Amino acid sequence: MAVGGEGVRQRQRGCSCTKADFFPEESFSSWSAYGRALRSTVSRLADRVTSRSLETTELHEVRARSGADMKRDLTWWDLAWFGVGAVIGAGIFVLTGQEAREDVGPAVVISYVVSGVSAMLSVFCYTEFAVEIPVAGGSFAYLRVELGDFMAFVAAGNILLEYCIGGAAVARAWTSYFATLLNHQPSDFRIHASGLDANYSELDPIAVVVIALVCIFASASTKGTSRFNYVLSVVHIAVIIFIIVAGLTKADAANMRDFMPFGVRGIFSASAVLFFAYIGFDAVSTMAEETKNPARDIPIGLVGAMTLTTALYCVLAVTLCLMQPYSSIDADAPFSVAFSARGMDWAKYIVAFGALKGMTTVLLVSAVGQARYLTHIARTHMMPPWLAQVHPRTGTPVNATVVMLVATAVIAFFTDLGILSNLLSISTLFIFKLVAVALLVRRYYVAGETTTANRNKLAACIAAILATSTATATCWGVDINGWVPYAVTVTAWFVSTVCLWAFVPQARAPKLWGVPLVPWLPSASIAINVFLLGSIDSKSFMRFGYWTAALLVYYLFVGLHASYDTAKALAAESAIAKVENGDDKPARGAVHNGV
To answer: What is the pTM assigned to this prediction?
Structure first.
């Protein structure tokens, strides 16, 4: 792609690797140009903070920057199995044991319900956006349209972190179950580096090999990946049914008597971590660009997959806790060890095999989703446009796939699962909260149509919803005793939502499929996601803060200037095209709204 007199156009169809593919913008043409760009950082930042993209821009101009098109050959059946394959993996097979033993006890089933409700609310928000804006960028594209470039970039960085960490966590869990399958301990297949910190000293070469194989599959063909995922997912569901049936034959109701040993706080603390088990459905939304009929296929695929997943999680959690006292559950391979403890040692091999199948599909769908996120981010030049190239033969973003999986492999090689799951939950809950806010903005605000008074009322109501949700989470996080503070903050959240419902008219109705009960469902999604954030430990928030700070440094020195140049070049080109077509009114909206 070239930015300048030629505008923003695709120069080549193949996947090349030149300076122009990484930094084609005017700001990076020379050191003096870069110096001028840095001196304009404040004005450019102000422009990008207030700039919002247009739906048509995301659907046409931005998508065209990848050169070759992605192939539209996915149906609701593909999406539903992608959803099942993306979600059911390390969360249920690893974190269930960890949380039941250490944080919540048999009440882990309630934790799964809480996390599932939060995930389903987010699924509704994602589905409306994916149907209305069917592009590969997923939540990044949705936030660019509704909340602007800057907020979309902050979310984009956390989206990429979410996928890298999620893939790394699943890859390390893959090693644990592989060891069980071969009658070994996970540590037998890891290399202990005594010179490193304890959380980063168990090196995992098997995880790296698995990620490399997944990279090859994901780069080859999306439809082929879908077929492979379908086969693995069917096997996986069969193993889950076996676990439930065989496990319940060894059930002992006495194991459920001490149902809430860690109290209500334990339930919500575990819910925040177990949210990791539901991560993956957002990857399905990135496949909207490759879906034959988004309006029909995406709602069926996403909502259907999440409903089935939540039901299976709850039944599996109950089964595990009926088989063993919570204090005896193994944190690394809970189901395999539970069968061994109940005299069904042979069953642990079936469980381990099913877990490996499930985690393989999670890695596969994650690889497909994360590459499409990165592709669309690179289309806006917030990341080097070389990452946006789609291979003309395979119809897949090979460059983005390889880069994301290399980063995932590096993290998987070093980092402990406990650190990964907590940090992953923060990034994901943060993004889901933003998507719910964006949906409220989409329904209640249309530039040029919404009055200033209604816009201000909308902003005040959203600020109040966020503030009251944060207040509730803060009370929980600092462990305030008594019900009075919660009665005040929850009532204030309810009043804020009522005010939005009663006093701000909706400015837009969904064209094809819409979230029901707006503003209640998006507002509830915001409240639950923020509340679960308040249950995560402080060290994870510190790591999240370091990552966000690093993102801002990159944005101020690179991403801001690249995306600014690209937006202005495309806006100028659009204005010229209008004049050439006989319209002498320049497209002021294109410059104001950004591209």
So the answer is: 0.78
Q: In which residue are the tokens 């970039």 written?
A: 153
Establish if 332 belongs to a structural domain: yes
Instruction: Calculate the CA dihedral of residues 262, 265, 266, 271 and round it to 10 degrees.
Output: 160
b/e sequence 307-328, b meaning 16+ C-beta within 10 Å: ebbbebbbbbbbbbbbbbbbee
pLDDT tens, position by position, 247-297: 999 899 999 988 999 888 888 888 877 877 777 777 777 777 778 888 888
Q: What is the mean pLDDT of residues 185-194?
A: 77
Interacting residues of 579 by C-beta distance below 8 A, sequence separation 6+: 586
Pairwise CA distance, residues 83 & 279, whole Å: 10
For tokens 């042979």, what's the residue? 346
The Cα–Cα gap between 98 and 150 comes to 37
Residue 58, pLDDT > 60, answer yes
Each as own residue / partner, the long-range contacts of residues 303-306 (CB below 8 Å, 24 or more positions apart, any chain) are 303/120, 303/123, 303/124, 303/127, 304/76, 304/80, 304/83, 305/79, 305/80, 305/81, 305/82, 305/83, 305/84, 305/86, 305/87, 305/281, 306/83, 306/87, 306/116, 306/119, 306/120, 306/123, 306/278, 306/281
pLDDT in tens, 38-52: 999 999 998 888 888
How many alpha carbons fall within 13 Å on the CB side of residue 409? 17
Rounded to whole angstroms, the Cα distance separating 385 from 379 reads 6
Inside any domain, residue 286: yes
For residue 202, the surrounding DSSP H or E stretch is strand 202-203
Q: Structural domain tally of the chain?
A: 1
Nearest alpha carbon to residue 369 among 511, 170, 541, 121: 170
Range of the domain at 99: 55-181+189-542
DSSP 26: G
Report pLDDT for 500: 95
Range of lowest pLDDT (138-147, 190-199, 325-334): 190-199
Of 119, 116, 124, nearest to 522 (Cα)? 124
Q: How confident is the model at residue 3 (pLDDT cuts 50, 70, 90)?
A: very low
What is the spatial distance between Cα 520 and Cα 506, in angstroms, rounded to a whole number? Answer: 13
- Phi, psi (deg, nearest 5) at residue 201: -100, -10
CA 13 to chain centre: 29
Q: Which amino acid is at 350?
A: I
Asked if 115 and 103 count as a contact pair (C-beta separation under 8 A), the reply is no
Q: Where are the alpha helices (H) located in 221-331, listed in sequence order?
A: 222-248, 263-274, 281-285, 294-323
Confidence of residue 98 (pLDDT cuts 50, 70, 90): confident
3-state secondary structure of 112: helix
Distance, in Å, from the CA atom of 511 to the CA atom of 483, rounded to the nearest integer, reads 43
317 vs 84: which has the higher pLDDT: 317
- The answer as to whether 446 is a domain residue is yes
- Nearest 5°: the CA angle 431, 60, 595 is 60
Q: What is the pLDDT of residue 514?
A: 87
Q: How confident is the model at residue 504 (pLDDT cuts 50, 70, 90)?
A: very high
445 in a structural domain: yes
Helix (H, G, I), strand (E, B) or coil at 291: strand
